[in-house]
């Protein structure tokens, strides 16, 4: 008792304690880096220290981190980065002329011709123009570079738009509609900003399709306590791997228009489409083709260099396109970004590499195309492999991985395992994931981190381990699962 | 009237309008990139389009953006960046072995040995350890790498700590004590987070010294409406250029301890000391030497690659050291950062270059030392030049630039000019700054952007234009000022 007293005394010496800090920090959760991942890190250290385990390495299938899993960077992008960093390389014969040309254009767009200068808050103008050209070409619709903001990965762009809608309306907390399951950046940010999350379920039985009656249900039920302001759609989906059809996007746009919801289209996986019948449609292009009044709707879409075939997560490159926003509101958005000065120039250069790659006839073209295809082909192969393998597991229900970088299988967890989980004060799927980690070294994220229908259990795995690694992983997984089922059935 | 009606109709079609977005976005101001700077950008475009002006270029003395003003990057840092980006350069004989060694250490610390992987949210461990070694050596006091967070410039670190203390206490809004004048990131963030700014005046008559009675006054007066939680000290000062004495720091630490304020020490200019009698003391080292209970106080300090002799603003590198924080609170801080994944690896590499430079005997050492000295010597020369020149202007009151990168002179603005400003609905110092910009192309920031005593007028200029440029600038400034005084006296 005296020790607890002196503990309290020590704690009361501190300026900050759990009961007087920002309560939203306590509320927020980000499962992709939660307790399972922390434990995986500990296990890695234990292995290094020579602790004996039934495996010799941790396989990090928890996070969409391409290079960490052995994906090779695209040479063109890395050369462009190196040239803008060390300009003596302009004299090197090892760097192709088309890359030099592009590096020169970027440096000419920097104050003092150095990537060491702060850029405009929205990014280097010439790169914003390159993005606008890329989007215009992709969509067959006009794109104004002034609608483009370069961001350090997609995350800060998403956060600044969510922060913009963070205002009580009619005394009610603002609500943000997000899919269930969702990418946890959304739930974490909504918590951090003290907004209300309005979840709408994706239909697992129809390959995670997004259905309008469910959107209406979620919207209407939330109205008592919340003023819904924004609708988040992730397409292709994380963690679900679904790709929306064009008809579906039309319906979603009509829904958002009807209810005056700001549409946030998270399209970071737009280059990751694997299913033969799936195709990526941008919300921008569909709204444009629908004509008035949809063409004039406010729409924010997000893109990243972390995904696709670049997989440059650590560099932190991304952009958002913000269209049809009231100019005064847009000025406020811009102002809010200026205080943080600018996003990293390395990320901005990576965005340039994404949207303005080598063109046919240029010296880097063939290698660029070959490297890009190699990455995308391997992802496609692995998307199919993961689907097929999990589909053969007892008690697994798994949808085709149409796009993105994940599978999100449902597991029927036997009652005895549910009881064992309860005894450990764990959600059943978290229990499953911990058992898997401790006995195989495979790190996945349990479904509760993304959201799932009550009483169902899932996990998310990436499809990123290199194919030979992935095969080993799936073998181990299969053995583990069979034993788990035997033990708890 | 019908047009205003249809305007309203159009506006009401929008999801977002000024009256339903985050009100804090409307409140916040960031003068370093405010209307003067926007006008400077327009003038640059006008000059490009051939519009005739009494000058042929804009001199951007508004922002501490070193490379933009012609400062050269440090070769060692850029080589380190290029090597980590394009690993084929390891085969190049043009890259010295000590740089290769350092690049190898960093890559070995990255998942998949690629800077394209996400890092731990707090940054690459090996670089955090390098930072800890650097601080320990600087301070002669222990430093634990687990207290180090790598951040994208100092700004995001500052914002996350301010966000942490953002909790109402006893029903009162949290208050943050900041100097007047201050660096506007603080006022902007305090607005954005709906906290209260508690300003304490620096004493202009004593070279912007920080005085305890004034801290007490500000603290006590704020208590009616506010719960002060944190105290920000900028040392060396921006915009003031003052360097605190050790005695002064001792007193500030005692004050913070007495009132249980979280100390935020913004020490990004620690390498920028020019006055012969000035020396940089870190808050950490002073608190450590003071012994208990000060040694156990919570303290956050911030550092950046944007300032000092690197001047790498665009790369976005920085770190914060957070000591003595309650472990549970620190866990919440870490958690809040994880959702944004990580800071850019390019910035992390730049931090490594800052804290682990070439050592005596290594191949890059001589060049590194020479380049570093060249930058610092030039800054010192310009600090003196700016002080001496402004000191000779009629109606100017200017303090010695002891450190950092700015001068913040007071101008006695004649009543006629004040009237002219009023007629234009402008603050008198903003009026002065606009007149200067339009007639000379020199872009400075008026004192109101930083805060100043009522009835006094200031502006901030950087000392960053290269010395020949700076001389031209000061000449033009002198002519302008003489004419301004003639016109309005
Ligand atoms: C759907 C989705 N949106 C956004 C992001 C953010 O990634 P980044 O900030 O690296 O661009 C991710 C990352 O996994 C994601 O899956
Ligand atoms: C006092 C002070 N703190 C922090 C910063 C933030 O700079 P950065 O985010 O580039 O590190 C600045 C930039 O000018 C500054 O002057």
Automatic annotation (TrEMBL), chains A, B:
Q: Which residues form the Aminotransferase class I/classII large domain?
A: 109-474
Pfam families in UniProt: Aminotran_1_2 (PF00155)
Report the Gene3D superfamilies cross-referenced here.
Answer: 1.10.287.1970, Aspartate Aminotransferase, domain 1, Type I PLP-dependent aspartate aminotransferase-like (Major domain)
Please state the pathway this protein functions in, per its UniProt record. Amino-acid degradation; L-alanine degradation via transaminase pathway; pyruvate from L-alanine: step 1/1
GO function terms (MF aspect):
L-alanine:2-oxoglutarate aminotransferase activity; pyridoxal phosphate binding
Q: Which cofactor does it need?
A: pyridoxal 5'-phosphate
Please state what class of enzyme this protein is. Answer: transferase
Q: Name one GO biological process term.
A: L-alanine catabolic process
Which residues, by range, are in coiled-coil regions?
A: none
Q: Which domain of life is it from?
A: Eukaryota
- For this protein, what reaction is catalysed? L-alanine + 2-oxoglutarate = pyruvate + L-glutamate
Going by the UniProt record, its keywords in alphabetical order are:
Aminotransferase, Pyridoxal phosphate, Transferase
Recorded hits in CDD domains, A to Z, give:
AAT_like
Q: What is its EC number?
A: 2.6.1.2
Assembly, in brief, is:
Homodimer.
Question: Which family does the entry's similarity section mention?
Answer: Belongs to the class-I pyridoxal-phosphate-dependent aminotransferase family. Alanine aminotransferase subfamily.
Q: What is this protein called?
A: alanine transaminase
